[in-house]
Amino acid sequence: MKSLVLFIIFITNSLLVSAQIFDVDTLLFSGNSEKRINLVVLSEGYQPDELGEFITHATSFKNSMFSQSPFLEYINYFNVFAIKIPSNESGADHPATATDVNESEITPTFVDTYFNATFDAFGYHRYIYYGIDYTDAASTEVKINSVLADNFPTYDQALILVNTTEYGGTGGKFPIASISSYDIAIHELGHSLFNLKDEYFLPDIYYAEAINMTQETNTSLIKWKNWIGTNGVDINPYGSSGVSATWYKPRHLQCKMELLNKPFCAVCKEGIIEKIHDLISPIDSYTPENITINTPSFPLDFQLNLIKTIPNSLESIWILNANNIDNNVDNISIEETDLKTGTNTLTAVINDATTSLRVDNHETLHVYTVTWSINYSTLGIETIVSDVNSFNMSVFPNPTNDVINFTLENTLDTPLKLEIISMDGKTIQSYNVTNSENLQIDMNTWSQGIYLAKVYANNDLIANKRIVKN
Ligand SMILES: [Zn+2]
């Protein structure tokens, strides 16, 4: 669920300043901001009479982002806002202190801007940052935090757009990008919001295990093993010698994390979608919530309002008292004859069946449920009580010939049951699993082949996962 919402109060002796309130424009509104990723664009290096132009630039950035996969498909999961912060002068500093290029031809320029954006950060010509180094950036970070706290405290991710057509950007907590190409801002968001690494040659200190970077070269163990051979994904070294030659990426010269104006590679795209699912449930709302009924009228109607992907890849399974009664519909009607005396349980299980996720080999599976408890007696319906739950399930390593780990987490602390079924339909093992327990199953003595792991919450089947014994 949403974990990025930051409520920040930075008050340090001399930095105590009164709230500065700026105009906030809405560039994209998909719905309830509690149920969306709220991206906030901050202006930098725009004078008061240039703030209209800033909105034009921020809108073009938003249009560019949501014309590209996977944002195109998941646009309904985002809201985008722009905060109009005036600077005294236009553009960004260019101190001509980079050491990676010859800056002798460049005249150092310094302008008075709100967040003090500067090129040549960390000695790199094309790094634009809100400080020349981390020490310098610290005071600007206080300023960024207070602008957000005063103007949009429930943001999930902020992005600083700098009014210069010179190429430059950096990722980090607050990604910052020039307007020379809106793909720079999208690339930097790849770092900041989605934890993706660059796929171009890097200084040694920047290499680390990540969604799209690894030192694993075994095709059956590598994190993107499911994609190898599809969409051009294979195992490509970052460099030809030294440290860079020991690190690998999914594509060569074909991913936006390496080159602008390329799409995200399949591995990065999957990482982005996984993060969207981590942050946002596809259940926007549902009816009824909790009601007491005096004079029930049948049929009873149950409605899901889902945050649809485009084209819609959300699937739903409807289960009444452990019987699957319908699939892939947003509402159902229950007749009196469908109910038994006592408590009836109606569950809608929702998951995203997009082909951009290869969950089979992917680490985490996200499943969301709405459960209604319908209390029915000979006098009729008395109450309907509802609950939403979201499940994160990790199964790793898969395939394996040894011990396999299952971690099943859910927000309601519902006890879960895991059943392992062989391909001929026999139940091999059954386990009761407490919330967040890491269940380890020793598969050593099992025969090689494919098994099905079935996960039940309150006797409702909520997920099927294929596991492979080597
Ligand atoms: Zn990539």
Automatic annotation (TrEMBL):
Gene Ontology molecular function terms on file: metallopeptidase activity
Protein name: Peptidase M64
Limits of the Secretion system C-terminal sorting domain: 395-468
Keyword annotations of the record: Signal
Xref: InterPro entries: MetalloPept_cat_dom_sf (IPR024079), Peptidase_M64_IgA (IPR019026), Secre_tail (IPR026444)
Pfam families hit by this protein: Peptidase_M64, Por_Secre_tail
